Amino acid sequence: MREKLFFFFLIVALLVFANCGGVTPITEERPPLPVQKANLKMVLEENEGLEIVWEDAKDARDFYRGGVQQKAKAEKKLQEKAYPEAMKFYQASNDFLTRMLQFMNEDCASYTLYEGTDILFFPNLLMADNYLKMGIIARETGRESAATRNWKKAQDFAYKSLLSERTEWGLSLEQEILSLSGPKKN
Amino acid sequence: MRGRWKRLAKNFVALTCAGTLWLAGADFSPVPKAFGQNVFQRYSNPQAVPDFSIQNLQGKQVDIRDHRGQVILLNFWATWCPNCRQEGPSLQKLYSQYQSRGLIFYRINSKEKPETIKQFMEKESLNVPVLIDKTGQTERLFGVWVHPTTYLINRQALVCYRTMGTVDWTTLQATSIIDQLLKER
Predict the structure, then answer these.
(1) What is the three-class DSSP state of B103?
(2) Residue B11 domain-assigned?
(3) A93 located within any domain
(4) Local confidence band at B29 (pLDDT 50, 70, 90 cut-offs)
């Protein structure tokens, strides 16, 4: 009986150690992915073309593409300082991306669609960037508490993004959120 | 009392066995979508087809804008994709049946060498016109996620239908959609 127990625990121990073998130590930090390899401009360009509208988005990745396309529109409106329209598109982008995150919630610099075709996949970071800019618009239009709320959300999404994929883009976004969400300078 | 427990135990064993047998016999494999089910996603809000210009298998440039006013079938595929290979013969039949009726066919190959494609086409006895998306830019413009993916474009250059995965193009569902698009003016 004692022999059987011994062998049982031995097998369990071997299985546990075998599974731990492939795990990368958490303490070791990899250098962040350079901004030349993953940035907003590249993501927007990758998703140009056939437009995805909400009613026709079926696949999880349709929602990602839709989210990026709405964000591209929002960025254009923000540059033009057309704040209400920009807010509308940022919100639409977040709606798409929120739906997408229900299916796939990890950012990845090289998401493989099929043989030889990878895409930049950053739903969390795009959400962070959207909330960051929604916060900026809120401050510009004198709604300080809305700005703070948006930056808090931006911070959460940037954190999630950096947990799954450390990028210079994500780190700089995080810095920007921190500097903005600090006390307002007069 | 003891007899009651025995009966309960027997019932439990019988139900477990029946459940196991049912699970063993049940087919949980994905239902082949092409047969009878609605595999054609009809866009409720059709969007304009993105412009692109790429070479065909013979090296001639083909511009999608030259086909404005025509019904177009664009099939994104690759020779290494098993589902695309499976779909090939029915697509070939559709092509033979509809090319004379004005349907424009293009199978857009993903980043493969012309020699590889030519060898494959000869081996499979296929002659559907093939375009080569050397860089993958055309696939990106359409937002292709899987192979095969097919888009049906109407005479107004709007993308009306999409299918993802293998389709039997000889079914009544497939041909009636194409017939309807060809009828529209």
Answers:
(1) coil
(2) no
(3) yes
(4) very low
Query: Which of B67, B53, B167, B54 is CA-nearest to residue B114?
Result: B54
Within 8 A by CB and 6+ apart from A83, the residues are A77, A137, A140, A141
Domain extent at residue A137:
35-181
Which CATH number covers residue B102?
3.40.30.10
Residue A118, chain B, CB below 8 Å: the answer is: no
| Residue B44 near chain A (CB below 8 Å) | yes
B27 in a structural domain: no
State the Rg of chain B over Cα.
23
Count of A-B CB contacts under 8 Å: 54
B152 touches chain A (CB under 8 A): no
Given pLDDT bands bounded at 50, 70 and 90, which one contains residue B30? very low
A41 touches chain B (CB under 8 A): no
Domains in chain A, number: 1
Q: Would you say residue B33 lies in a domain? A: no
Residue at B59 is within a domain: yes
Provide, as residue numbers in chain B, all residues whose Cβ is less than 8 Å from the Cβ of A113. Answer: 144-146
| CA pair distance B16, B141, nearest whole angstrom | 53
Report ipTM for this prediction.
0.79
Query: Within the 127-186 window of chain A, which residues sit less than 8 Å (CB to CB) from chain B?
Result: none
Report the alpha-carbon distance of residue A37 to residue A122 in Å, rounded: 13
Which residues pair with residue B41 across a beta bridge? B162
CATH number at residue A131: 1.25.40
User: Domain range spanning residue B166?
Assistant: 41-183
Counting the structural domains of chain B, the total is 1
Among partner residues B41, B81, B143, which is closest to A65 by beta-carbon distance? B143
